[in-house]
Amino acid sequence: xxxxxxxxxxxxxxxxxxxxxxxxxxxxxxxxxxxxxxxxxxxxxxxxxxxxxxxxxxxxxxxxxxxxxxxxxxxxxxxxxxxxxxxxxxxxxxxxxxxxxxxxxxxxxxxxxxxxxxxxx
Length: 121
Fold this sequence. Notes:
By secondary structure, the protein is mainly alpha-helical. Helices cover 77% and strands 0% of the residues. Helix 2 packs across helix 4. The longest helix has 34 residues.
């Protein structure tokens, strides 16, 4: 998974995934929206992540997945006492969309790394 300095498609896919995650957080998620986020996440992983970046990429993805889940749970607990209402729901939607965006790429890169480790044996 080599980087091509002349190819900015991976960078645009990353920006599109982040922007879409935020925008789609304001609406009810549809299956096609999740699919678009997943495809963008795969594009980012394939085009942007080099062999040297695998560990950092996977660590960052795990941090996003765990952090998004914990923050979403915290919003559930704090929504009523702090009168967050729709804001909490919107933030939870954005967090969920970010997870939909990063997870497919993380799985792909993790499988590639497992294969790489297994074949070196």
